[in-house]
Amino acid sequence: MNPVQATISAPRPRLAALSPDPLRQDAYLAAGLAALASAVAVTVGSGRHPDGLGWALLLGLHVPLVWRRRAPLAVLAIMIPLIAVYHQQDYNHSAPTAASMVVLYTVAVTSGPRRTAVIGCAVVALMVILKIGDGMAGLTVSFQITGWIVSMLVLGGYIRVHRENAAAALERAERAERTREEEARRRVAEERLRIARDLHDLLAHSITLIGVQTSVAAHVLAADPGRLDRAAVAQALDDIAETCRTSRGELRTTLDVLRDPGSPDARCPLPGLHGLADLARSTAGAQVKLTVTADEVPPAVGAAAYRIVQEALTNAVRHGGRDDLTVRVQVYEDEGTLRVHVTDDGAGAADGTPGYGLVGMRERARSVGGTLAAGPREDTDGFEVTAVLPLGGTR
What angle do CA 385, 386, 392 make, to 5 degrees? Predict the structure, then answer.
């Protein structure tokens, strides 16, 4: 399989299990913190043991924690009055500490730095107001609690920034993965288009030549059976066999590339200007006059020029409409470009739906940054193809 196709078709790993329900997790957390607060309320800490009101306040302030991730500010707004009343009744002051720290942490995780700072200052100010009536002892406790409040807010802010960075990194990785997949698809599409063009050029040219050569042999056999020109028939059949051998070799090379793109045997040299002479000699059904005055050109440009000339000759033989067809092919350099000019004196383009020949030639020219114009000749009968292929300044 082509590595590019393997990249696209590789299945994504499936998640082993779905994430637990956050609401259920927070319900378990609230129940655990309520149990811890109840144990603290009757064992350690300052203040009196809760009575009925105290237990109602202590357990009630843990209930909003179930929705702490869905509405953290609302949970904080509900819990603060309950905690304030609980402390004002001088119940065990250490019991609700864990719940207070959890809600402050949640607010810091889900809020921005400015909002977190404002909420922190408001909570500290409220706590100082409640403790200021206790004198120096109250202020000392206030400073201790302030340290815990600031610690929770800083921890929550740090976790929030860490999660944002992790989410940004994951988004960048997913974007890069999507970009790689899009690039792989684009490369696959381009490769398929290139192979389709090669097969079209190869098969169209070969089948056209075989058709012309077969017609020649049939004409020789039917012209004068009594005086059969065996040499002409043999030459026509040899030409057909040679065309078949050449086409079979190019077709095998193309199929090798499809089977194993990484194989060294599949990397055959691209056709180029050096093959134009053989192409002209092998074109049956027309007299090809070839003029090549270009030096060595980049392989991609040479291959594009070869395929353009090949398709132009195929079209000329197919649509020429005359036995003494003449095709002139000129390939030369001009101001940093390779110019290809193919003209014939045939009947010109046939009426009807156009095929892929002209489209393929234009795509060949565009593949190296060039342009191509094709149409009937203005001054006389026939058809002409003109391509301008930039050399790019590299050889």
Answer: 140
Token reading at 129: 């107001």
Q: Which amino acid is at 377?
A: R
Mean residue pLDDT of the chain comes to 78
Residue 210 has pLDDT above 80, yes or no: no
Please give the single-letter amino acid code of residue 250: E
Total residue count of the chain as it appears in this document: 395
User: How far apart, in whole angstroms, are the C-alpha atoms of residue 82 and residue 14?
Assistant: 45
Distance CA 238, CA 247 (A): 14
- Torsion from C-alpha of 141, 146, 147, 153, nearest 10 degrees: 150
d(CA 395, CA 38): 85
3-state secondary structure 144-171: HHHHHHHHHHHHHHHHHHHHHHHHHHHH
> Are 285 and 325 contacting, i.e. CB atoms less than 8 angstroms apart?
yes
| Residue reference for tokens 């381009």 | 190
User: How far apart, in Å, are the Cα atoms of 318 and each of 121, 181, 216, 238, 349?
Assistant: 89, 42, 14, 21, 10
Buried b (16+ CB within 10 A) or exposed e, 10-30: eeeeeeeeeeeeeeeebeebb
Q: Around 228, how many Cα atoms within 13 Å sit in the side-chain half-sphere? A: 8
The rounded distance, in Å, linking the Cα atoms of 194 and 340 is 20
Report d(CA 57, CA 82) in Å as an integer.
6
pLDDT in tens, 231-284: 767 777 777 777 777 777 667 766 665 665 555 444 455 678 888 888 888 777
Q: Note whether 201 and 307 are within 8 A (CB).
A: yes
SS3 373: strand
265-283 burial: b if 16+ Cβ within 10 Å, else e: eeeeeebbbebbeebbebb
At residue 242, the pLDDT reads 73
Are 92 and 41 within 8 A, CB to CB? yes
Helix (H, G, I), strand (E, B), or coil: what is residue 298? coil
Contacts of 94 (CB under 8 A, 6+ apart): 40, 44, 45, 46, 47
Contact between 339 and 309 under an 8 Å Cβ cutoff? The reply is: no
Q: Residue 196's pLDDT is what?
A: 72
Give CA separation, 161 vs 38, 70, 111, in Å: 34, 19, 11
